[in-house]
Amino acid sequence: MPPSKKRKISSASNQSPQLEDRATEEKMSVQSQNNDNGPIPREPSIEDTKGSESGITVDKEIERKERFKALQARAKTSAQRNLKEAAAEAQRQATDPDILSSLSRKQAIASHKLLKADTEADGEDFERKRAWDWTIDESEKWDKRMAKKEKHREDVAFQDYRQDARKIYKRQLREMKPDMEEYEREKAAAVQKAAMSGGLEIVETEDGELAAVDKDGIFYSTAESTDFIENKPQRAAVDRLVSDIKKAEEVRLKKRKERGRGDEEGDITYINDKNKQFNQKLARFYNKYTSEIRDSFERGTMI
Question: Do 199 and 218 form a contact (C-beta atoms < 8 A)?
């Protein structure tokens, strides 16, 4: 029994190297086939997944930091710009515009005098040289404007109430802003109405334009016309008239107050400021003696 068993073991030991060589050859053949077909795809492991997620997280953090730095830079730039504009606005408000206009006017006068002095030093006519920069029409308009300005400057002082009323009337005309669109609309409606009733005749001129001809002479207003009483002004025009009247009254009261004649005063017993001061002096010394007599005169019981 033992020898036979020993033979079996020896035979098995003799066959094992052959099996190992065959397995090695099969393994090598499989690897060669895999190398010919390309690398074998490997399933991602847990470590690979964790590495990719950590890389994405790092990229997001870097992007957020860059965006935050850009926002900080923009906020800093905006704050600096706002501070600069606020300082400029404060300086502009602190500067008096009257002072700026006065300085610019003085600078213009100084440059004018310097140019005039240089021109006269060269032996040239200053006015003639200065007129070279302007055309004849512009020069005539300027002279007319200066003459009108000089006349207006001389006309400031009070002459009489008629002259004062004329100045007020001219000022109101300058401030008036008529509604030309509404005027043209009302004019077209009136012409159309007159043409339909036969008061006007529409005639076509040689140029192809239409003209209204008043045949009877009753369409256009004259001294005897009474059609204006049928005019109904708009609400805005009435409000504008009321505001102008209130404004004129406020100006009158303001001037009266500046002259020392407020509404709190009683009867006006003076003709000028000098007479007013004299009357006040008399009242200060003699009112205590004459107050009863004046009250009796006012009541009518003195007689």
Answer: yes
